[in-house]
């Protein structure tokens, strides 16, 4: 079998009907996959999708590519493996329909054999569409990888290898391998399957073989139980990975197919007394909800971008991710396996009751079994995956019929994979909207409703009405996920003593309360904040407004145009850690030093409006274009009794921690350039310190994160306005022009600024708080040079080498 990336040679354009005339600017244009057809479309205040998509329009799109089909393929079977096409994808070969996949997040296979014209150039087209079908920015088109697979008629189909570890102790582990062998030929075939288990150090530690006879047009499953001595177990702190190498040969010993499957050896347990345990060791979930987009790349899913997100999120203190609200990409699952990040993978945002006009509910009742199969087949070999979530804030969940759907979906997941836990992101208020008609009529969407309810939401989520309505749907779960319902945690331990809970979605600023509950209550196994990484769409949901701004109007959670980003991540879309990330790290107990967060001096004293998903408008810098003596508010995050603030060695006084908010000491002082030091103390003893220094003369700088990048991969280049010590300035932002030369192209350019009309596809973009990210696709071997220039600054360059 050959499995090769199928990313070059494509064109993409708006899909026009047979009676429409071609329109200027609608393509087709050459593209390289993965590709987001929406990212570079013009945004508008009048866009009907509005805040949901970040004011980005939808559309229907067509991708096309020529495929040379040699005569030798007559003796092969040929398929395309799509990791995801958003959405309602239809694949054609030579004008004939090959397959249709409605789910924009499900991987699927297009079997090309019946439609191939051998010895000719064949034409492949893929149609996709996106319009008012999502509550967030979905992207559109072939946004995840595609592979061309050419195999013998006797072969291993997609996801045909399943590895489990049912029996593990310190001395040995039993590895069960089940391999599906498919015979697409006209005659019975006698084959032999061989297995090798390869340890993390590359040594073969177990092997086995079995003859397998496969009738024509059928599948046969070959199984083996192999024993590995002294197994190196997979755990978030040491993610050891093994590989199961499977080879299928014919009766004469000739190789027909082969596959290497990565897996981990670990055990998984959960109960309300000891919580979650991996390999018998307790683990609490420091979780982040994440959407699927990759910031400046739009929805395009690149292996390097997914790996970078996982790595940076773990470095920021998270050990678990919830894929909200759709199945996680294969690339991100692979990254979670490598980096030791646990996964709650989610099936869908809606079942049978729609949240937006054309969402997945149109097809879900007929295709739910296929959707579950796609999710589980993709996930079941990944040790990082510990839970499947069957939904998010499902509207019908609190009804008797909704409960039958809950049970149906949960049992289907267990039938496909009994080794992991089933959960659901339950919001009791959303599940009871029909009983809240008056409240529902007063708001445009659920986010605004929850924001307006304030403390009432906690009381309602813990009410007897909600408890009774969700009881059956909760009972079908192994772990009950609660969205914004921490008010239930203590009482549920009394009312439902066998119930295990996870905070599947919580407000970011309440992490001090949330984590206190996780530490206190053994039946609460973790917390997933909204969100770990900022995202496109649900624009402005976490913004801070200054209400004395001319023209200000209260728009609820909907950020007015030109808001594009949610502005609700611990990390912004470039991967830069916002101040809340360090607050969370201190709450988790992972950081002993305090952390200084400065409110922008230019806004001092102005009235603000926030949402439940907001944090403060703060930056960790003492480099401001402010007059000496200008008033400024300084927050210091610390796990301490008190914090002393010093400027150039002179004490500005001490403040208690927790007076304004847990883990926060607040100071009102005056700005003066120099060295600002925060010293944290507990019981009079210094526990840590944090230092900020005013930047000297800033210059434009560019730094590539890696010196070498594999051909086809991505280089991430940080561009900053900083002095020679790397101290960035926060309020002197300028547009930066970026040019790429050599075997590479600029794939995306942008900053963490949530409100902007700039395009990620342009060659110029303004810095935000002195920072900008350029993403470069490396198309060939050799040096790729990135030049950055801005008015008033010397041009700067950096480079990476394609290998």
From TrEMBL:
The Glycoside hydrolase family 2 immunoglobulin-like beta-sandwich domain, residue ranges: 162-266
Residue ranges of domain Glycoside hydrolase family in the record: 700-795
GO terms of molecular function: hydrolase activity
Keyword Transmembrane: no
SUPFAM superfamilies, alphabetized: (Trans)glycosidases, beta-Galactosidase/glucuronidase domain, Galactose-binding domain-like
Occurrences of domain Glycosyl hydrolases family 2 sugar binding (ranges): 60-149
Domain spans labelled DUF4982: 629-687
Limits of the Glycoside hydrolase family 2 catalytic domain: 276-433
Assigned keywords, A-Z: Glycosidase, Hydrolase
Record has Lipoprotein as a keyword: no
Annotated Gene3D superfamilies: Galactose-binding domain-like (2.60.120.260), Glycosidases (3.20.20.80), Immunoglobulins (2.60.40.10)
InterPro entries according to UniProt: Beta-gal/glucu_dom_sf, DUF4982, Galactose-bd-like_sf, GH, GH2_Domain-Containing, Glyco_hydro2_dom5, Glyco_hydro_2, Glyco_hydro_2_cat
Organism superkingdom: Bacteria
PANTHER family in UniProt: BETA-GALACTOSIDASE, BETA-MANNOSIDASE
Similarity comment text for this entry: Belongs to the glycosyl hydrolase 2 family.
Protein name per its UniProtKB record: Glycoside hydrolase family 2 TIM barrel-domain containing protein
């Amino acid at each position: 079998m050959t499995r090769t990336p199928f990313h070059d040679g494509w064109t993409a354009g708006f899909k026009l009907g047979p009676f429409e005339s071609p329109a200027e600017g609608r393509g087709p244009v050459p593209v390289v996959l993965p590709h987001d057809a929406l990212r570079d479309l013009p945004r508008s205040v009048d866009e009907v999708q509005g805040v949901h998509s970040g004011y980005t329009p939808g559309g229907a799109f067509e991708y096309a590519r020529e495929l040379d089909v040699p005569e030798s393929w007559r003796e092969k079977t040929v398929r395309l493996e799509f990791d995801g096409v958003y959405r309602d994808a239809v694949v054609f070969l030579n004008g004939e329909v090959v397959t249709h996949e409605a789910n924009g997040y499900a991987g699927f296979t297009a079997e090309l054999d019946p439609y191939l014209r051998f010895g000719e150039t064949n034409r492949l087209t893929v149609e996709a569409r996106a319009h008012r079908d999502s509550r967030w920015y979905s992207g559109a088109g072939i946004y995840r990888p595609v592979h061309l697979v050419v195999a013998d008629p006797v072969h291993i189909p997609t996801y045909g290898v399943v590895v489990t570890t049912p029996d593990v102790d310190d001395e040995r582990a039993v590895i069960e391998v089940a391999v599906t062998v498919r015979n697409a030929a006209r005659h019975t075939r006698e084959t032999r399957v061989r297995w090798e288990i390869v340890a993390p150090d590359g040594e073969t530690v177990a092997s086995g073989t079995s003859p397998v006879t496969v009738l024509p047009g059928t599948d046969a499953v070959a199984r083996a139980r192999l024993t590995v001595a002294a197994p190196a177990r997979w755990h978030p702190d040491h993610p050891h990975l093994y590989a199961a190498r499977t080879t299928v040969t014919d009766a004469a010993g000739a190789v027909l197919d082969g596959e290497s499957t990565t897996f981990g050896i670990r055990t998984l347990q959960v109960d309300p007394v000891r919580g979650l345990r991996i390999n018998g060791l307790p683990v609490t979930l420091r979780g982040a909800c994440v959407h699927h987009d990759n910031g400046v790349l739009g929805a395009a899913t690149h292996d390097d971008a997914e790996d970078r997100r996982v790595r940076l999120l773990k470095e920021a203190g998270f050990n678990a991710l919830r894929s909200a609200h759709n199945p996680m990409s294969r690339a991100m699952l692979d990254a979670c396996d490598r980096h030791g990040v646990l996964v709650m993978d989610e099936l869908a945002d809606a079942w049978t009751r729609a949240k937006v006009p054309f969402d997945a509910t149109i097809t879900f009742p007929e295709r739910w079994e296929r959707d579950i199969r796609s999710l589980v087949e993709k996930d079941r070999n990944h040790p990082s995956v510990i839970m499947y979530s069957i939904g998010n804030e499902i509207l019908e969940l609190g009804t008797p019929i909704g409960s039958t759907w809950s049970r149906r979906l949960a049992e289907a997941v267990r039938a496909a994979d009994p080794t992991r836990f089933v959960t659901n992101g339950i919001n009791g208020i959303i599940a009871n909207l029909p009983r809240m008609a008056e409240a529902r009529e007063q708001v445009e969407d659920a986010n605004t409703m929850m924001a307006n309810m304030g403390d009432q939401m906690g009381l309602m989520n813990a009410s007897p009405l909600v408890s009774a309505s969700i009881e059956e749907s909760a009972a079908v779960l192994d772990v009950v996920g609660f969205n914004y319902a921490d008010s239930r945690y203590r009482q549920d331990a009394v009312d439902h003593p066998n119930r295990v809970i996870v905070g599947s979605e919580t407000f970011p600023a309440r992490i001090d309360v949330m984590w206190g509950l996780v530490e206190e209550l053994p039946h609460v196994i973790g917390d997933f904040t909204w969100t770990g990484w900022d995202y496109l769409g649900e624009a402005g949901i976490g913004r801070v407004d200054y209400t004395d701004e001319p023209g200000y109007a209260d728009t609820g959670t909907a950020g007015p145009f030109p808001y594009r980003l949610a502005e609700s991540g611990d990390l912004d879309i470039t991967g830069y850690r916002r101040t809340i990330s360090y607050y969370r790290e201190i709450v988790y107990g992972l950081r002993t030093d305090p952390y200084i967060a400065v409110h922008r001096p230019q806004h001092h004293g102005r009235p603000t409006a926030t949402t439940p998903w907001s944090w403060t408008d703060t930056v960790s810098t003492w480099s401001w274009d402010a007059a000496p003596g200008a008033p400024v508010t300084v927050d210091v995050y610390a796990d301490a009794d008190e914090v002393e603030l010093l400027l150039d060695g002179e004490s500005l006084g001490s403040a208690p921690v927790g007076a304004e908010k847990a883990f926060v000491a607040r100071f009102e002082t005056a700005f003066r350039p120099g060295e600002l030091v925060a010293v944290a103390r507990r019981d009079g003893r210094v526990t840590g310190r944090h230092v900020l220094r005013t930047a000297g003369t800033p210059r434009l700088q560019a730094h590539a994160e890696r010196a070498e990048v594999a051909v086809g991969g991505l280089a991430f280049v940080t561009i900053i306005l900083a002095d020679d010590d790397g101290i960035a300035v926060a309020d002197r932002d300028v547009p930066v022009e970026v040019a790429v030369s050599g075997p590479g192209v600029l794939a995306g350019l942008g900053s963490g600024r949530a409100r902007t009309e700039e395009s990620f596809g342009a060659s110029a973009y303004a810095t935000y708080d002195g920072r900008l990210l350029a993403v470069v696709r490396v198309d060939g071997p050799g040096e790729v040079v990135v030049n950055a220039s801005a008015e008033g600054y010397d041009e700067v360059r950096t480079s990476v080498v394609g290998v």
